[in-house]
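Purpose: get a first structural picture of the assembly so the mutagenesis plan has something to point at.
Setup: two entries, given in the order below. No constraints added.
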Amino acid sequence: MIKVNLDHSSLKTVELDNNKVKQIHEIIKTKSGAGNDFLGWIEWPEAFNKNEYDQMKKVANSLRSKIDILVTIGIGGSYLGIRAADEMIRGLNHSDKIKIIYSGHTMSSTYVAQLSEYLKGKKFGICVISKSGTTTEPGIAFRTLEKQLIEQSGIEKAKELIVAITDGSRGALKTLANKKGYLTFTIPNDIGGRFSVLTPVGIFPLLVAGINTDNIFKGAIKAKNNLVQNDLTNQAYKYAAARNALYNQGYKAEALVTYELQMQYINEWWKQLFGESEGKEGKGLFPTSMVFSTDLHSMGQWVQEGPRKVVFETIIKIQNPVGNLSVELDQDNYDGLNFLAGKSFHEINSVAIEGVIDAHVNAGKMPNIILEFEKMDDEQFGYLVYFFELAVAMSGYMMGINPFDQPGVEVYKQNMFKLLGKPGIK
Amino acid sequence: MIKVNLDHSSLKTVELDNNKVKQIHEIIKTKSGAGNDFLGWIEWPEAFNKNEYDQMKKVANSLRSKIDILVTIGIGGSYLGIRAADEMIRGLNHSDKIKIIYSGHTMSSTYVAQLSEYLKGKKFGICVISKSGTTTEPGIAFRTLEKQLIEQSGIEKAKELIVAITDGSRGALKTLANKKGYLTFTIPNDIGGRFSVLTPVGIFPLLVAGINTDNIFKGAIKAKNNLVQNDLTNQAYKYAAARNALYNQGYKAEALVTYELQMQYINEWWKQLFGESEGKEGKGLFPTSMVFSTDLHSMGQWVQEGPRKVVFETIIKIQNPVGNLSVELDQDNYDGLNFLAGKSFHEINSVAIEGVIDAHVNAGKMPNIILEFEKMDDEQFGYLVYFFELAVAMSGYMMGINPFDQPGVEVYKQNMFKLLGKPGIK
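Result (structure tokens, whole complex):
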């Protein structure tokens, strides 16, 4: 569950446009807005292919018994969601036998060479993710690592260790996988990359990581059933309307703030979801991320006393910790922290959050939107994904743009292909 | 070496204020500006205590033979610089026996509990870093992990496995270490936290990580000797003047862009250095980070087509890769990427950078400052640190603030202490 608290946002209820929300709700529901070919994510938590899901579970289980490392090869929406889920649900220092390592999201020769060296002699598998199979970054990473895996495991064994997530019927990666005998799972045609983490793009690697994906779907379905109101009582719409109201007041950037290190890549995933959906036609809030307490001791000074009306903060506040410890009593009390003895870390962190909100909002005159979030687990991950996907649909339409395309991403690709002499490009 | 290229910045030379640069150079040189008690970093690369350095080397070597994991406990400047150096120099998938894990930079109970669980039965040491020893976040993390280490190793052995980096003569951590028999190294009084990575704060953990810190100092000295001009031919000043000129044109935020995953925490370190130095009195660029190619497929859309005159980009462009690989020729060429076969990843990445700069600057009308940077190694890390430290001194004075204090960081702490009932605070 996510509850939106605007008590510290400096917004008056009247500034949120309930009528516009109602109109756009109809547009989403009747699929009559711009980009309506890409609304597959709305029904997906219940509409996905159950046979394919069962098949994915079998393949993932078999893979878990054969490898120690899964290298996923993908970029953008084929990278951030997987990492966001894995780090949020398993945490940063987990003891599961399978480690996920990412590739295909960089062309750094140093990174690729070092990864290749690191994988020598290790038991690894590959999950390559690309709708077309012709994207340069994952394409050249796959060429390198596929060759290495075949050299290390032999060509027959490699067929059991490589899985492709790609288009269901055509494209370069589908053809390659069919010819070479690699299993494939399907990226739906009506769900864009940044909305794809609940499709096989995310679900297959997470199954290999040993994560309970049934619970992820359970959470997404719960969100789908909870977030049905056509007005501001719908919490996803309330968040969308609040950020739009601040945007209309002149704010340029929204900082998503977490107090949990393992949520850092949730913020990165959110940055793509909102930045790529809304940053067009000269519009859109610049999405940025802060991880507190770390960034209280780096960006905190700017937040407290820098220019106003540039950035506002949206805080994800966790209600229940997964693990908890209490501060030890120390007889000597050299550090003077005995006043905290017996208190749990979670209790202290919660108080810190209140103190920071008060400092930033009252002394700093910086609006804070609070998202009250239940817990960092599989089910709540599913809930969070659906919440933000619905919110960005509402928010993008409120801004007057098509939230489901990304025309600007092509410009650098065309430039690059031209400079690299790709056949047929001039 | 770092060379500043303004060809794509949309700035005319006349917009850079050479006279102001000359005036401020005198202020820095004669130590006559605001915050001049904290200019110790200027001479530090040559002025540091050689006896203490030799002692650190001995202790670090001994520690390397006894542990597999070094947990550093620190926040802000006692965290980001260490991680920035470790990841840039050793890379993300290195094979050195010592792993560094960070703590004390979060109060997340989930993180601390999971880390504690992870360390059970493992051979670990602790490097606790705090000038005062009373900062809450590292303080409570140290209480927890110190107890665990003593339980796992016994109280006598633990004395060899715990090192404190703290004030030279007083403070809670100094007292604690003396009483309990832990070795200490000194944080100089005239160097602030965000400028401290070349002091024992950074150098001791990096020695334990097996990094050649002699080379780091060599690079810092090279920068100190190179960056001596009193005008815009000084590359650090040129960068400072360029970002100030864009700030004066109305830009709100500067995105530091890297194409190397292992430079991600250089960007985080830079964010603290610039954000905490300049974000005061209602002034300062909001510092933010982007890691390409990843973020080309997330923030790229916003950068290409979002609002203008909000963000400008500063690109760190690496001249020479550490490792390099070439793209394999594939007989079948299903992915259509054979036009890249035989080209090195570094060559492709360099062309990609040109293509992106052209797309962002010409199609996107977004100014780009290019920092041409030699190589990701120990020596160049030292150079980079000194370059940015000198740049922020110039830049902060140009903005008319004291770049060496951080008054705003105290507000949340006071709030938190009040809410937590700290004795003597009301």
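The mean pLDDT of chain A is 95.
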